User: Fold Thiamine-phosphate synthase from Macrococcus bovicus.
Amino acid sequence: MLQLYFICGTNNTRDIEKVLEEALKAGITLFQFREKGQGALTGEDKKQMAFKLKALCTEYGVPFIVNDDWQLALDVDADGIHLGQDDDKIADIIEKFPDKIIGLSVSNFEEYDQSDLTHVDYIGVGPVYETSSKSDAKRPGGIELIRKMRLYDEQIPIVAIGGITNRNCEMILKAGADGISTISSIAASSNIEQDVKNYLDYYK
Ligand SMILES: Cc1ncc(COP(=O)(O)OP(=O)(O)O)c(N)n1
Ligand SMILES: Cc1nc(C(=O)O)sc1CCOP(=O)(O)O
Ligand SMILES: [Mg+2]
Assistant:
């Protein structure tokens, strides 16, 4: 499920429904609706978009995850929720999400140590490289962040994030990540089918 985790909001691309459908057809394995930034959809518009994107994901058998907004995740019966260190605490909402996928962001070992991972299905570790898709991203940890996190916890599923492309993905997987997540390398791709295929080829 974590192999190729596409994350997108309406701000990341011109036509999110078209881009998501192309990415699903090409074989992404997980999708996160991350609707934030200037001009982002809110309220009913955000909910209607979430319903449409979830329907697309369901058609292709790919789990639909909501970023940050657990109320939206409940409203649209998403398959899971991704929360960061500054978001609502998993312990406070977990009762509302039995049997759902729970992701947590971990950028360094201090954050890992202070996180309760009891209900966490995967950790999003990054940024690995510089990213222009998140204005408040922390300092990139490079490939070493993944390598050390893998040694720190040998069991937890790790999805790497931040500045990942087809060119650096292989090193990240070799460093111990179970999968990679990306916004711009798919949302801004001029050939989604080929780029997705190139990513998935690393797992063969
Ligand atoms: C898979 C994955 N990993 C990390 C993040 C970042 O979450 P967060 O730190 O809460 O930042 P925002 O995405 O909410 O800006 C993520 N969304 N997904
Ligand atoms: C959403 C997000 N979270 C990050 C983290 O480090 O937690 S980096 C990031 C943006 C990833 O976008 P791109 O693939 O375009 O670099
Ligand atoms: Mg968040």
